[in-house]
Write a structure and sequence with these properties.
Chain A has 269 residues and is mostly beta strands. Helices cover 10% and strands 39% of the residues of chain A. Chain A is built from 2 helices and 20 strands. Chain B is mainly α and 261 residues long.
């Protein structure tokens, strides 16, 4: 009985701590959010007009190594730190979330001050229509769902997973895979995705208008779109270390997919 | 043969224009038909009467009157435009006509040429202005905060046929200093079109020593190998020695070095 009581207390306490680890702010006048971190980030679109940062990620579509973050139990507050403020070399924690926030015109810069060893992933909720630029540092992965504004993503080894997006998108990764599922393709600005060793997997609606360019130095390119026109003499392209260029539905916005070693998959939805 | 047909062909029969067979048929019918015999007689009489009518001949008086009129008219003509009839003046007229035609054509040609060159100049000016506008827009957009817009700006440079030094410098700036990999990659792509330009080659060699992204390293190496720039060998060797260079980049370097030897 005593044990149950203690564990319930502990649970309540940790929930209280959990609740503290959330940050909210108004986004009035903000058009773009620039985020620098080293941990996995889930980006969601909220119904309100507030920006929310919340510890923990919803691991519906994370990699194996992402689970590590969620499995981790929060250590709680450090009693010794009571009455003191945390100091970080990278800046001042003015959010209480271990993150510095700075307004620069209509841009909001959020910089994660905690080392990745103390982060176990967090969820960023944004109102609709705000552009987002994320640098996931060395280890962070990123999952973005239902996003219709401009996205800029950089990751090193982390996986980039974009679901139900429209672009414009700029994404680059060194070893991480980049998966993108478009609901429609915004024609206003180019889409550019590059990886060094990771794979690129892009799904487009069949009626997308686009000028596609795909290039991989050592990988393969796969697609079920008709991109390479048939030659009159009936010969087929077998393979070549060069760009694959083509138009979808008479052309439109530029979509460039570049990889050094990874394969490129372009799918028709 | 019926009487109807005989009646129709009577005149032809009398004038002997029927073929022998029809002629014989007619003769046979007429011999047996009293009606037709009568008709034959009547027609004969009619034709004879026609034959007797004399041709109307204009009286000598008419002829004389006409000649008088003609003479009168002739003298009038000679009086008014008589001189024009002489050969000399016909040449002059021809010359005059030819000259006026020549003048007309010449005037038209000069006019259209002038107009043409004027509108050509205008078109050229407009073109220049558009391309200048595009350049300005591109240069302004290259500083845009949005990465996607910067890439768009770099892509615009492909629409400028003869970019000036300013454009090339701006693109080279992007190649060296842009924080985003994809913008740098687009810049490499755009600059690769000016393989003859020394500044571009210099920029690529400099980029090879500074760049850390493998995608860009590979694109730069491929360009320098293609233009056969031997200066690329030293920075390529350095990449080989560097422990942080990924293996697949080293593979590209080795491949390139063989070609550059």
């Amino acid at each position: 009985m005593k044990r149950i009581c203690i564990s319930t207390m502990a649970l309540l306490f940790s929930l209280a701590v959990w609740a503290q680890k959330e940050y909210k702010m108004s986004t009035s006048g903000i058009k773009k959010v620039v985020l620098e971190t080293n941990t996995t980030v889930d980006v969601k679109i909220g119904s309100g007009s507030e920006l929310t940062l919340e510890n923990g990620v919803d691991c519906e579509n994370c990699d194996e190594h992402d689970h590590y973050y969620n499995d981790h139990e929060d250590e709680g507050e450090d009693d010794r730190a009571k009455g003191l403020t945390a100091l970080y070399a990278g800046g001042t924690d003015n959010t209480g979330f271990g993150m510095s926030s700075e307004r620069d015109g209509s841009t909001l810069r959020l910089k994660d001050l905690k080392p990745f060893t103390q982060r176990y992933g967090f969820t960023l909720t944004l109102p609709k229509g705000i552009d987002l630029s994320i640098d996931c540092g060395n280890l962070g992965s990123i999952n973005v769902t239902d996003f219709s504004a401009e996205l800029e993503i950089e990751s090193n080894v982390g996986h980039v997973n974009l679901k139900n997006v429209t672009g414009p998108i700029t994404a680059s990764s060194s070893t991480g895979n980049i998966d993108v599922v478009f609901t429609s393709v915004n024609q206003s600005a180019p889409i550019s995705i590059s990886t060094s060793t990771g794979a690129i997997d892009v799904s487009l609606p069949a009626n997308t208008k686009a000028d596609i360019e795909m290039k991989t130095t050592m990988g393969d390119v796969y697609s079920n779109f008709d991109l390479v026109p048939k030659r009159d003499d009936g010969l087929e392209v077998v393979g070549a270390n060069r760009k694959i260029k083509g138009q979808l539905n008479n052309g439109g916005v530029d979509i460039r997919l570049v990889s050094s070693v990874g394969n490129i998959y372009l799918r028709k939805k | 043969m019926k009487c109807n047909t005989v009646e129709n062909k009577m005149i032809l029969f009398l004038e002997g224009e029927l073929d022998p067979k029809q002629h014989a048929e007619m003769e046979a019918h007429i011999a047996s038909c009293s009606n037709c015999q009568q008709m034959l007689e009547e027609t004969k009489a009619l034709l004879d009467a026609f034959g007797k009518v004399e041709d109307e001949v204009p009286s000598p008086r008419v002829k004389q009157g006409f000649m008088e009129l003609l003479e009168e008219e002739k003298s009038l003509q000679q009086f008014t435009i008589g001189k024009n009839n002489s050969k000399e003046f016909a040449w002059k007229t021809a010359f005059q006509i030819a000259a006026s035609i020549l003048l007309l054509i010449g005037g038209y040609a000069i006019g259209s040429f002038q107009k043409g060159s004027e509108s050509n100049v205008e078109i050229a000016q407009l073109r220049e202005e558009t391309s200048q506008l595009k350049q300005d827009m591109m240069l302004a957009m290259l500083d845009n905060r949005s990465v996607s817009k910067r890439i768009q700006a770099v892509n615009y440079s492909e629409d400028i046929a003869m970019p000036d030094a300013k454009v090339l410098e701006a693109l080279i700036d992007r190649l060296h200093f842009d924080g985003n990999v994809n913008v740098r990659l687009a810049a490499v792509e755009a600059l690769s079109r000016y393989s003859e330009n020394e500044k571009v080659k210099d920029a690529f060699i400099k980029s090879l020593t500074n760049e850390t992204n493998p995608n860009i390293q590979i694109a730069v190496i491929q360009f320098l190998v293609e233009v056969q720039d031997k200066r690329a060998r030293a920075p390529m060797q350095k990449l080989l020695e560097h422990s942080e260079t990924p293996k697949f980049v080293k593979d590209q370097v080795n491949e390139g070095l063989v070609i550059l030897m």
